[in-house]
């Protein structure tokens, strides 16, 4: 019975997370997230390599002051 409650709580929490992301996509213009490339982060990309997904140079990003 405890496992069933745990599974139910897990499903509800995952559902809330998915609903939150869906609402964010729906509310944003063109349904795009801002700054999703990990290569834009100076903590993750110490070598300054271009993004492997979109090919954008980290220094070309207007949000990145570096």
Explain briefly what this protein structure is.
39% of the residues lie in helices and 0% in strands. The protein is mainly α and 66 residues long.
Note down, in words, how this protein is organized:
With 66 residues, the protein is mainly α. The protein has a domain at 37-66. It is 39% helix and 0% strand. It is built from one helix and no strands. It is elongated and about 55 Å long. The termini are far apart. The mean pLDDT is 76.
List strands and helices in order, with pairings:
Elements: H1 2-27
Cα gyration radius (Å)? 18 Å
Structural class: mainly alpha
Element order: H for helix, E for strand: H
Number of helices: 1
**Mean pLDDT score:** 76
Q: Main β-sheet, in a few words?
A: none
Unreliable stretches, pLDDT < 50, 5 or more residues? none
Cα distance spanning the termini: 54 Å
Subunit organisation of the chains: single chain
The proportion of residues in beta strands is: under 5%
Helix content: 25-40%
